[in-house]
Amino acid sequence: MAGFGAFSSRLYAFFTRNPSTARVVIELAGLRPDDRVLEVGCGAGGAVELAASRIGAERVAAVDPSPTFVEMVGKRVPGVEAEVSGAENVPFPDASFSVIYSVASMHHWDDPDAGLATLTAKLAPGGRLLIAERLLRRPGHGITQERITEVETKLFELGQVDVHTVERKAGHRRLAILMSTRPA
Ligand SMILES: C[S@@+](CC[C@H](N)C(=O)[O-])C[C@H]1O[C@@H](n2cnc3c(N)ncnc32)[C@H](O)[C@@H]1O
Question: Which of 28, 91, 123, 152 has the greatest number of C-beta atoms within 10 Å?
Answer without folding.
Answer: 123
